[in-house]
Amino acid sequence: MQCPKCKGDLETKEHQHIRVQRCNKCYGLFLEAHMLNETFAEWMAESFLDVGAISLGKKYDKIDDISCPICEVAMDKIEDPVQTHIWMESCPKCNRVFLDAGELTDLKYETFSDKLKNLLKGRRKRDKAGA
Question: Domain extents for the chain?
Fold first, then answer.
């Protein structure tokens, strides 16, 4: 399966009972929504799964018109309701989420720096369809 951002290969990675697809090129993560919640509950899961450089994640974060590699439908552009500087994509059909490198770790830990990022980056602009 190909990464929807860089066309690298998505490889299965597991930590404890958590399973994700990680790109071997941009280190983005593609996972089921319930697995996202599992990573928050599992101590240090992000350090084993979210291994890409934050700078690489920022580069690919600018690409947001992507299709689900499974369903081949346009993924919805969403933001975290608490940390609005974290922009991700969600498949409306299979409910899987794509996170750029570094975003899983950022989601798990809200810091004072995140509050500043929210102010600087702002909210995600919506497309014409309202997604």
Answer: 10-121
